[in-house]
């Protein structure tokens, strides 16, 4: 909001004209910007019309999504409170040319969030003097105070940790001469070790799943151990692979070695199968599908009026598809084919890494389940009266 005395008029001279709307580039407006903006365009507001009434009162409310830098303090997570500053000020006008006045922040349109509670948005007016200039520079700073909601983190992180810690205290309630005292401690130690190992393996699985295809192709030993042996052992198939068929060739420009139609042992080129985008420009054509064209024993009889002269007639017009044009078209076709080839190879490589991550994830599931069952049975069966207690109390 601001006043512009050059935009005033007398309503009696213009009956019925109480307000006018101008585009943002037709009238003067203050260059108020968010100083600590983190947006790519810096000013992300939509330049809407300016509403001007007869007294020169101008109102400009540009909508926009503001992104700002903010220091996050996670020392007291998940019971933390974050404070983010929004500093607004003129970019070129000093305090002698433009006077800023702060209005109270209106949070009536605030939409509640599932993770954060809005505590308040206090504001302050600041007058800053720089060494370069005598005039002051004004800014208005709003502090957005947010408090994290702890219900989700309490149920998923704090309560399990507290229960596990409380259960460990029960070890000290057992008699010192009891053998179960050591067994219970071993069980808790093995459980915590399994949790730590599961987190480590999850990191490797996520690394494989989100691997950048431009970072390099999959090593050969990973393909053999994970994609071939691991997938076969866990009875897993790659997406799109039909059961009972041999695994497809690796996505590369090398052709797969197989026998041709006449029983020979020479390698031939076969199609690599349908890719995600359906392009088979570079996959090759099976030799068995190409039927040889027989040549006649002797040339056919051609009537003499249709025999061609060794010298081309001078009246034949020049072909527009000359050699330079054909070469340019061939170059463009090669570029398009190379582009499709690169996209298909990158997509196939990405799918390989994702499938490897799925195989490792399934392998860890089986190994951890076996380890948990074996450790639980071994630790519980180590108790001398375990079988007797199970027989008498539960059977």
UniProtKB/TrEMBL annotation:
CDD domains, per this entry? LGIC_TM_cation
UniProt xrefs under InterPro entries = Neur_chan_lig-bd, Neur_chan_lig-bd_sf, Neur_channel, Neuro-gated_channel_TM_sf, Neuro_actylchol_rec, Neurotrans-gated_channel_TM, Neurotransmitter_ion_chnl_CS, Nicotinic_acetylcholine_rcpt
Q: Where are the transmembrane segments?
A: 151-175, 187-208, 363-387
Q: What is this protein called?
A: Neuronal acetylcholine receptor subunit alpha-7
**Family listed:** Belongs to the ligand-gated ion channel (TC 1.A.9) family. Acetylcholine receptor (TC 1.A.9.1) subfamily.
Major subcellular site: membrane
Q: Name one GO cellular component term.
A: postsynaptic membrane
Record lineage: Eukaryota, Metazoa, Chordata, Craniata, Vertebrata
* Species of provenance: Ophiophagus hannah
Give positions of region: Disordered: 243-270
Which membrane topology term applies here? Multi-pass membrane protein
Subcellular location field: Synaptic cell membrane
Instruction: Establish whether keyword Mitochondrion is in the entry.
Output: no
Give every Neurotransmitter-gated ion-channel ligand-binding domain span.
1-150
Supply the gene name.
Answer: CHRNA7
Q: Which SUPFAM superfamilies does this UniProt record tie to the protein?
A: Neurotransmitter-gated ion-channel transmembrane pore, Nicotinic receptor ligand binding domain-like
MF term (GO), any: transmembrane signaling receptor activity
């Amino acid at each position: 909001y601001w006043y512009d005395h050059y935009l005033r008029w007398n309503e009696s001279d213009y009956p019925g004209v109480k307000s006018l709307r101008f585009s943002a580039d037709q009238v003067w407006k203050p260059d108020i910007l968010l100083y600590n903006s983190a947006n790519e365009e810096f000013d992300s507001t939509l330049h809407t019309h300016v509403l001007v009434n007869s007294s020169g009162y101008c109102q400009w409310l540009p909508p926009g999504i503001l992104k700002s830098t903010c220091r996050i303090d996670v020392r007291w997570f998940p019971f933390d409170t974050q404070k983010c500053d929004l500093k607004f000020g003129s970019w070129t006008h000093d305090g002698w040319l433009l006077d800023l006045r702060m209005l109270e922040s209106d949070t009536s349109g605030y939409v509640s969030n599932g993770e954060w509670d809005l505590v308040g948005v206090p504001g302050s007016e600041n007058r800053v003097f720089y060494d370069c200039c005598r005039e002051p520079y004004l800014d208005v700073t709003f502090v957005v105070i947010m408090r994290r909601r702890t219900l989700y983190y309490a149920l998923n992180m704090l309560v399990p940790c507290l229960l596990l810690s409380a259960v460990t205290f029960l070890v000290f309630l057992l008699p010192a001469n009891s053998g179960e005292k050591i067994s219970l401690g071993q069980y808790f130690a093995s459980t915590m070790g399994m949790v730590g190992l599961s987190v480590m393996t999850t990191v490797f699985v996520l690394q494989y799943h989100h691997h950048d295809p431009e970072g390099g192709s999959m090593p050969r030993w990973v393909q053999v151990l994970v994609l071939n042996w691991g997938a076969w052992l866990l009875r897993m198939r790659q997406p799109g692979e039909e059961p009972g068929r041999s695994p497809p060739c690796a996505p590369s420009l090398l052709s797969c070695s197989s026998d041709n139609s006449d029983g020979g042992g020479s390698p031939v080129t076969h199609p690599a199968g349908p890719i995600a985008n359906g392009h088979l420009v570079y996959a090759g054509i099976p030799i068995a599908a190409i039927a040889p064209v027989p040549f006649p024993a002797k040339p056919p009889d051609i009537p003499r009026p249709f025999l061609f002269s060794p010298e081309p007639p001078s009246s034949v017009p020049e072909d527009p598809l000359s050699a330079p044009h054909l070469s340019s078209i061939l170059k463009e076709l090669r570029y398009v084919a190379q582009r499709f080839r690169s996209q298909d190879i990158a997509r196939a490589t990405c799918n390989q890494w994702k499938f490897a991550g799925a195989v490792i994830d399934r392998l860890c599931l089986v190994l951890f389940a076996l380890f948990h069952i074996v450790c639980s049975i071994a630790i519980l069966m180590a108790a001398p009266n375990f079988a007797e207690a199970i027989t008498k109390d539960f059977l």
